[in-house]
């Protein structure tokens, strides 16, 4: 499976092809499916599907197969990215990853706050001694959005409490490994709707830790300050 160094890829299931748009939009699920179907015996029967919580299933319509992630000749893919924990899986017609794939924070809770995209204005207002004002609008910046979640369970908050089947599923993982590094991230309004237009692409606007202890025991509040990140 061919990828481009420095380009973003997503385990999204939205069938977007590999392209440099907005830093990269390629769907790794579709790319893996295409790669599997390039096998001379595949007969186009492989499908790679993903749930709303990002658990991947690989299946074939009519054949059994051996999934050999650890084959030194045939595979250079890291199975952990896709949620698979073993180097090989026996002859099967369908196999579901035991773990959630990497690169997602799935809260399974409703957002408590959401400003939606708001347009900031760059400029200034001057006021004379007599009280007259004049406004000077210089530019319209990237739209900004603040989103928040309250009472997030600690398993979805801190890496040390993350579920065994979601080893990178805590917000702390997303913050330390991607968001705080300035990487683009997607916000989906509906996790079950994965299309090329059902998300917004953002980057963080602040470096302060967005996660704080909630007023409730073993719960946390997360508040993200973001700006649109399209090219």
TL;DR?
With 231 residues, the protein is mostly beta strands. It has two domains: 9-96, no CATH class; 113-228, Elongation Factor Tu (Ef-tu), domain 3 (Beta Barrel). It is built from two helices and 15 strands.
Mind explaining what this structure looks like?
The chain folds into 2 domains: about 90 residues, no CATH class; about 120 residues, Elongation Factor Tu (Ef-tu), domain 3. About 5% of the residues lie in helices and about 35% in strands. It has 2 helices and 15 strands. The protein is elongated and about 85 Å long. The chain starts with 8 loop residues before the first strand and ends with a strand. The model has no long low-confidence stretch (mean pLDDT about 95).
């Amino acid at each position: 499976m061919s990828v481009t160094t420095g380009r973003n890829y997503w385990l999204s299931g939205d069938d977007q092809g590999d392209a440099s748009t907005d830093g990269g939009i390629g769907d790794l699920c579709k790319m893996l499916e295409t790669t599997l179907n390039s096998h001379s015996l595949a007969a186009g029967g492989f499908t790679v599907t993903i749930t709303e919580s990002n658990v991947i299933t690989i299946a074939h319509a009519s054949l059994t197969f051996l999934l050999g992630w650890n084959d030194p000749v045939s595979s250079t893919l890291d199975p952990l990215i896709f949620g698979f924990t073993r180097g090989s899986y026996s002859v099967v017609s369908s196999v579901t990853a035991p773990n959630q794939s990497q690169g997602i924070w799935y809260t399974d809770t409703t957002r408590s706050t959401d400003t939606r995209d708001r347009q900031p204005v760059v400029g200034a207002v001057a006021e004379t001694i007599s009280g007259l004002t004049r406004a000077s609008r210089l530019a319209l910046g990237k739209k900004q959005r603040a989103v928040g979640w309250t009472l997030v369970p600690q398993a979805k908050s801190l890496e040390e409490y993350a579920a065994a089947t979601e080893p990178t599923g805590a917000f702390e993982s997303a913050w330390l490994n991607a968001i705080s590094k300035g990487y683009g991230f997607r916000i989906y309004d509906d996790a079950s709707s994965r299309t090329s237009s059902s998300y917004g692409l953002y980057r963080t606007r602040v470096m302060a830790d967005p996660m704080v202890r909630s007023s409730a025991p073993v719960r946390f509040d997360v508040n993200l300050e973001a700006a649109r990140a399209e090219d």
